[in-house]
């Protein structure tokens, strides 16, 4: 009976499916139940669970959904090798140098490797928890080629022993590695063939029947071919997929269909996990997009002009040229592989060697598309009626060798070139040069490098004091303040990226923290339309910190944003649905407050209709001028043009409402379409405001 019970338990564990997610501070309570800090320190180096959850490059946990989502494992990795515990410092540093040297010799230099800083697994889950957590770490850190361990040679006895291979050793120290290729190999992408139809059909049928499929209509056939039949889960024409592939093969200069395959477990059998349809953008479509969106950074999708700036007449008129862009017309990827969607891009560009840009559009109600957030940049609309979100990328955006380092004096010229065309070019370059000076102990600057060229930079002010900020902002709702050291907070001054590499902005910010020996970056946004918009990384990736009413005599009249490694690894779900809030009273502002400071969702398309401006204040009022500043409402709620969570203000009165058409009519003859409408008209008496009692 005992033998049968053990066999039954082993079988159950072998078929158990765990889920993973980034760790949260409240996970520490469960982790403390099975993580021995002393043992962790002996194996992996100096150990502090709370600090790792908040500040490690990535910390993930394994969850058992069959046992009330219990946390059953954690894995933490850092870009810097942990200092060995229990040995003299000089000997520890010697071991660290040996491990880094051996790793580099094996093809894992510091820019593509991370080190395990802690790993714990609950009893009974030793054989099933580490592999999914490793996969999750590689998904969170796409630049990594390997995760390494520098530890005593007894690691084989640890839960990680089955997932890591010993690469080198000394008498008392060893180097272990888990490569991306062995844990999460890149998708095998190739041109689709007509005979792939039958094997692809279940994947496409699944997306057709899923209202929450990533990308919404983009996950289905281009043009919406026959989606009415009951055949194949609502696909309609049973040969629609074969027809799509056949048409692309007949016209390879204008169309292309790619398929992605992945190995099923360790069986060696390959199965289809994704399909992408791409077509060349024609002149008419390029002109239409350029008329609705600010595509200047992408040359309006046309060939870059040649010849000198004076225009000597040798350059052919753009009207006779073909656009140099392709457009994604369909992208259907198995949910388990959505984080690897960017593997399609290189192959898409290979199919169109003369094209430099790739674009896609998403309607407001479409679920977020991982490809758009991982490898593309949202383009600002110039037409108020352009409701679809346009995302674009350049073929060079996927180049390997993207690194970040501390800035040097001789980076000035390249930063000057990077800022060419900006009205405040000289001012920004001077600020960069001041921060880059080695003798400057109050500031720091980093530069992003790709193929030896500066493609971005960031400057920060060191040693930011947070005691006064904590009186005016609820920092603890966003940051685990206790996990940060006294000098761990810095303030972002500026961050500029070449649009080609804009999707790597989070990585640049994480490296800026690491290189400046900080663990949290703050950004202050003062109110007023004359203030420059915040950098894209602030609008898109930082968290807006909820304000609190200060009664100490000092109150902050600015918005505060925060960024940590944990925040970087826990991006919010992008909600592009159009939300219209009508009213400027306290109830309306409370709605905006909850939307803007939500830590799970980024509401990117919110409009506040307020006739006569924001009218709040008074002794008994929760919201005053400082409160409005803390929500960045007078700045448009942040840089909403690039998709950042924020609020657009419409100073007008509502004169009509079409509930069926989901449209609000304003007295300036404009209209606002919506997916959600919040009506908070409040009381009409504005006497106190007319008398100046605010």
Q: How would you describe the overall organization of this protein?
A:
With 694 residues, the chain is α+β, with helices and mostly antiparallel strands. The protein contains 21 helices and 30 strands. Helix content is 26%, strand content 25%. Helix 11 links the parallel strand 11 and strand 12. It starts with a helix and ends with a helix.
Low-confidence residue ranges? 1-12, 225-236, 307-315, 637-641
Shape: globular
Biggest β-sheet: count, sense, barrel?
Answer: 7 strands, mixed
Across the major sheet, the strand order is 1-2-3-4-5-7-6
Brief sketch in words of this structure:
This protein has 694 residues and is an alpha+beta fold. The protein is built from 21 helices and 30 strands. The longest helix has 17 residues, at 89-105.
Topology:
Blueprint: H1 2-14, E1 19-22, H2 28-31, H3 37-44, H4 49-55, E2 58-64, E3 70-78, H5 89-105, E4 113-121, H6 130-140, E5 146-151, E6 165-169, E7 174-179, H7 180-183, E8 188-191, H8 197-208, H9 240-250, E9 255-263, E10 270-280, H10 283-292, E11 325-333, H11 343-351, E12 357-362, H12 370-375, E13 377-379, E14 389-394, E15 403-406, H13 412-418, H14 425-436, E16 443-450, E17 453-461, H15 467-472, E18 489-497, H16 505-515, E19 520-525, H17 536-541, E20 543-544, E21 559-563, H18 565-568, E22 573-575, E23 579-582, H19 586-596, E24 601-603, E25 606-609, H20 625-630, E26 647-650, E27 654-658, E28 663-666, E29 671-673, E30 676-679, H21 687-690
Parallel strand pairs: 4-5, 11-12, 18-19, 22-24, 23-25, 23-30, 25-26
Antiparallel strand pairs: 1-2, 2-3, 3-4, 5-7, 6-7, 8-9, 9-10, 10-11, 12-14, 13-14, 15-16, 16-17, 17-18, 19-21, 20-21, 27-28, 28-29
């Amino acid at each position: 009976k005992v033998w049968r019970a053990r066999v039954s338990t082993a079988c159950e564990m072998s078929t158990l499916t765990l889920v993973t997610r980034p760790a949260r501070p409240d996970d520490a309570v469960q982790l403390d139940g099975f993580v021995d800090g002393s043992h962790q320190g002996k194996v992996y180096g100096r150990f502090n669970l709370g600090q790792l959850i908040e500040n490690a490059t990535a910390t993930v946990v394994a969850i058992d959904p069959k046992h009330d989502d219990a946390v059953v494992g954690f894995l933490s990795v850092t870009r810097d090798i942990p200092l060995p515990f229990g040995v003299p410092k000089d000997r520890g540093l010697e071991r660290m140098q040996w491990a880094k040297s051996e790793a580099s010799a094996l093809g894992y230099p510091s820019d593509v490797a991370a080190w395990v800083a802690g790993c714990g697994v609950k009893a009974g889950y030793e054989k099933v928890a580490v592999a999914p957590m490793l996969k999750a770490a590689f998904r969170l850190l796409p630049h990594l080629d390997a995760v390494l361990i520098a530890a005593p040679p007894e690691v084989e006895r640890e839960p990680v022993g089955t997932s890591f291979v010993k690469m080198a050793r000394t008498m008392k120290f060893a180097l272990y590695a888990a490569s991306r290729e062995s844990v999460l190999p890149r998708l095998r992408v190739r041109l689709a063939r007509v005979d792939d139809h039958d094997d692809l059909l279940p994947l496409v049928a699944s997306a057709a029947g899923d209202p929450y499929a990533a990308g919404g209509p983009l996950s289905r056939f281009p043009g919406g071919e026959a989606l009415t039949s009951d055949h194949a889960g609502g696909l309609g024409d049973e040969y629609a997929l074969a027809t799509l592939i056949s048409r692309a093969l007949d016209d390879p200069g204008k169309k292309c269909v790619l398929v992605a395959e992945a190995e099923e477990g360790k069986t060696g059998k390959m199965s289809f996990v994704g399909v992408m349809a791409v077509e060349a953008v024609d002149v008419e479509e390029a002109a239409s997009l350029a008329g609705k969106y600010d595509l200047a950074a992408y040359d309006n999708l046309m060939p870059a002009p040649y010849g000198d700036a004076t225009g000597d007449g040798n350059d052919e008129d753009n009207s006779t040229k073909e656009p140099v862009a392709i457009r994604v017309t369909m992208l259907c990827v198995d949910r388990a592989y959505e984080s690897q969607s960017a593997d399609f891009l290189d192959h898409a560009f290979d199919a169109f060697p003369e094209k430099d840009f790739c674009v896609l559009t998403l309607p407001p109600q479409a679920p977020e598309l991982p490809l758009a957030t991982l490898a593309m940049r949202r383009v600002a609309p110039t037409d108020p009626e352009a409701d679809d979100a346009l995302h674009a990328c350049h073929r060079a955006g996927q180049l390997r060798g993207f690194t970040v380092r501390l800035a040097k004096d001789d980076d000035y010229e390249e930063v000057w070139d990077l800022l060419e065309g900006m009205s405040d070019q000289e001012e920004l370059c001077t600020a960069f040069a001041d921060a880059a000076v080695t003798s400057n102990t109050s500031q720091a600057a980093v530069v992003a490098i790709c193929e030896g060229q500066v493609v971005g930079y960031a400057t920060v002010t060191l040693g930011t004091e947070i005691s006064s900020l904590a009186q005016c902002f609820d920092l603890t709702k966003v940051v685990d303040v206790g996990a940060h050291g006294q000098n761990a907070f810095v303030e972002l001054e500026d961050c500029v990226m070449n649009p080609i590499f804009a999707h790597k902005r989070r990585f640049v910010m994480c490296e800026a923290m690491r290189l400046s020996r900080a663990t949290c970056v703050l950004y202050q946004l003062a109110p007023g339309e004359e203030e420059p918009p915040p950098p894209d990384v602030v609008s898109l990736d930082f968290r807006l910190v909820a304000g609190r009413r200060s009664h100490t005599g000092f109150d902050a009249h600015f918005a505060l944003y925060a960024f940590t490694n944990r925040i970087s690894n826990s991006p919010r779900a992008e909600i592009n649905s159009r939300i219209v809030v009508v009213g400027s009273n306290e109830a309306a502002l409370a709605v905006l407050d909850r939307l803007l400071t939500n830590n799970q969702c980024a509401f990117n398309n919110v409009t506040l209709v307020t006739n006569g401006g924001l009218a709040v204040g008074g002794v008994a009022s929760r919201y005053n001028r400082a409160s409005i500043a803390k929500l960045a409402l007078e700045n448009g709620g942040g840089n909403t043009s690039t998709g950042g969570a924020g609020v657009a203000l419409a100073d007008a009165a509502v004169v009509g409402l079409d509930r069926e058409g989901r449209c609000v009519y304003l007295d300036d003859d404009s209209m606002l379409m919506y997916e959600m409408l919040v009506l908070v008209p409040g009381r009409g008496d504005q006497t106190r405001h007319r008398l100046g009692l605010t």
